[in-house]
Amino acid sequence: MFEFDLQSVANIAEILGALLVITGVFFALAEIRHYRQQRQERAAMEIMRSFQSRDFTKALRLVMDYEQECRHCREQAIPQELQDAAMLVSTTLESTGLMVYQRIVPFALVQQLMGGTIQASWRVLRPHTEWLRETLCRPSIHEWFQWLAERLGEFPEYQDEIGAYSKYQNWKPEKGASSRQKEGA
Question: What is the pTM of this model?
Answer without folding.
Answer: 0.69
